[in-house]
Design goal:
heterodimer, A: mainly alpha, 0% strand, globular, B: mainly alpha
Chain lengths: 334, 287
């Protein structure tokens, strides 16, 4: 038990470090540039129409406070952290006066749901098929899946999402291509609403899953094709253990821990994919929020989404890391 | 080196396909030097002409020839990938070799930072960077920031090799013969990690070009330098899909998918070659 405790402490320390460094990068980017971010934001906001001079002046003071540009560098740094720790990013400029945290809170469940479902499906399906393909190396169907996986996996998320949009939006319009649910339904847990949410999630999830399955398939196939040459597998086969048992308890079981590590390491990349997929399909998650915030010149919102995504992804990685000992009991010993 | 390439060509179907795809991409980018139109100018040809013998890939709503625009875009995109790969290789090599050789607390702290960079979602950070820089965002600046964020995974691979090299006898003998740390790393260890460096270069290019396309499509880069993502951005700005100008989006999309699959297949075949088990399987006893 003490081994597991030490493991948890180490992972927690790593989690804190990730968040700390990530937020420091955000700080350096916003403070160490030669450009005055306040004037930059104001010029973006005011470029859309006439704004009264005193309104601009008000905006300037509130932005200066928000960026924490007053005082010495040390004070600025501390003020920045204080805002982050209180999750207070001020009111949104583009949806004034709604606070940024409210906007993010509204968008977060959409992204979390989409990401969780598509990641779990892609990882599970990819690992299963990859394991089968590594074990039954002569199977034609599995070989074909391998070829498709190699073809689909390196395509960037945006391009695949665009292709799906064109196919299911223009050529064969069967699925809704924009939004998170039908606009005319109340956001309540009714049957119609849930069906509509699921329909709208199909295309965004599909573009994440198609790329994900390819990558987990290839990873698992490579791992399994190494594991099957191990002595204990050969021994189990010669001893007459039933094939599916060899596959599930001897081969897949030992290839899963590295796959899970791979999942933890690529969570950031999957999140990047979700951001762009949401934008393509107009899905109401944090990705769309981020992109629209940039177009609208809303600094507080951009900083808020960046911080929340660093926090969210590192939490996801922490959860996977804490589950890891379930798959690999050796962790507890060391 | 030519021997390795010959073996790969002869025994590895993935390598042949990948090399062919990349050859097409390279050919396109070389053709950019022969373009009759400068890349930045608009309305040099009649707009919205579908693909024909005069305009192979049609023309855009901005009066540009899609084919020649694509050659510039391909060149810039590939150059971008190479620049990021080159700079991040230097970082990954330095940190990976040093960390693996030194071990101890240096290794532990470097790897803690390294793991952080692996985990952090980069797209929001790059978007934040664009948000602050706006019009000053240039091609080179983006390459620099992406290189300084994209070395971590490969540094870990290099470190793993460096750790095993450290335990080998020749490291001890070069240490006793009075070589400095820098000399040991550069002269003794570097040649052993070069194969990994090659294959990670290709993967890194897939990664950086993918992110660049994503950022450019959203308009979060210097949109006046023609890149593949930039072309799709302009096509979206002119709602090319709805207006039926499909060739404006289709050809850049095909080009970028081709490049990605090509780079990925080359990386796969390189990995198969590096790994002795799969090398035996696919190359037989040759090499």
């Amino acid at each position: 038990m003490s081994g597991y405790f030490a493991y948890v402490v180490r992972r927690l320390a790593q989690f804190v470090l990730v968040v700390f460094i990530g937020i420091n990068i955000a700080y350096v980017i916003t403070h160490a540039t030669p450009i005055d971010p306040v004037e930059q934001s104001i010029s973006v906001v005011t470029s859309f129409g006439n704004t009264a001079p005193d309104a601009i002046e008000k905006m300037r003071t509130s932005l200066r406070e928000l960026y924490g540009l007053g005082g010495s560098p040390v004070e600025q740094y501390l003020a920045f952290w204080k805002r982050i720790l209180r999750a207070d990013f001020g009111p949104s400029m583009s949806a004034f006066p709604t606070p940024v945290s409210t906007l993010i809170g509204r968008a977060l469940p959409w992204t979390a749901g989409l990401l969780a479902v598509s990641t779990i499906v892609a990882w599970g399906l990819g690992s299963l098929l990859g394991g089968l393909a590594g074990y039954y190396q002569e199977s034609r169907g599995l070989k074909l899946i391998g070829v498709i996986a190699i073809g689909v996996h390196p395509i960037p998320y945006y391009i695949l999402a665009l292709v799906l949009l064109i196919v299911f939006g223009f050529l064969w319009p069967v699925l809704p291509i924009t939004g998170g649910a039908a606009m005319n339904l109340p956001q309540a847990p009714t049957f119609d609403f849930i069906v509509s949410v699921m329909q709208h999630a199909v295309l965004p999830a599909l573009s994440l899953i198609l790329i994900g399955v390819g990558s987990w398939f290839l990873g698992m196939r490579a791992l399994v094709s190494h594991v099957v040459t191990e002595d204990y597998v050969v021994y189990a086969e010669l001893a007459g253990v039933r094939p599916w048992r060899v596959l599930s308890s001897y081969v897949m079981r030992n290839a899963l821990p590295p796959q899970l590590t791979g999942l933890a390491m690529s969570l950031g990349g999957i999140f990047n994919g979700a951001v762009i997929t949401e934008k393509v399909f107009g899905y109401p998650g944090v990705g769309s929020l981020l992109v629209d915030a940039v177009y609208a010149g809303d600094y507080g919102l951009v900083l808020g989404v960046t911080t929340v995504s660093i926090l969210g992804v590192s939490t996801g990685v922490l959860v996977i890391d804490l589950l890891y000992p379930l798959l690999d009991p050796r962790v507890k010993v060391t | 080196m030519t021997g390795i390439l010959r073996d790969l060509w002869r025994y590895h179907a993935e390598f042949r396909i990948g090399a062919a795809l990349i050859a097409v991409a390279l050919l396109l980018s070389v053709l950019a030097s022969f373009s009759p139109y400068p890349p930045q100018q608009v309305y040099v040809v009649p707009p919205d002409v579908p693909p024909s013998l005069t305009y192979w890939f049609g023309t855009t709503s901005r009066g540009q020839d899609v084919f020649w625009q694509l050659t510039f875009a391909m060149r810039n995109t590939l150059l971008f990938g190479c620049t990021v790969a080159l700079i991040s290789r230097l970082l990954a090599l330095t940190i990976g070799l040093f960390s693996g050789y030194k071990g101890g607390w240096i290794d532990r702290s470097l790897m803690a930072v390294n793991d952080t960079f692996i985990v952090i979602p980069l797209l929001p950070i790059l978007v934040l960077f664009f948000f602050v820089m706006r019009d000053r965002m240039s091609w080179l600046l983006l390459a620099l920031i992406m290189a300084s964020l994209g070395w971590a995974y490969d540094a870990r691979l290099i470190r793993a090799v460096a750790m095993s090299l450290k335990a080998r006898e020749f490291t001890q003998s070069s240490l006793f013969s009075g070589m400095s740390t820098r000399e040991i790393l550069v002269q003794e260890h570097l040649p052993y990690v070069m194969p990994i460096v090659f294959s990670t270069t290709l993967n890194n290019m897939v990664w950086s070009i993918g992110l660049e396309v994503t950022l450019a499509v959203l308009g979060f880069t210097d949109i006046n330098t023609p890149t593949i993502g930039g072309m799709i951005y302009w096509a979206n700005q002119h709602t090319a899909m709805v207006a039926g100008i499909w060739w404006w989006i289709a050809f850049p999309t095909i080009a970028v998918i081709m490049t990605f699959i090509g780079l990925f297949l080359l990386a796969v075949s390189m990995n198969d070659y590096i790994d002795p088990r799969s090398r035996l399987r696919s190359f037989g006893g040759a090499s």
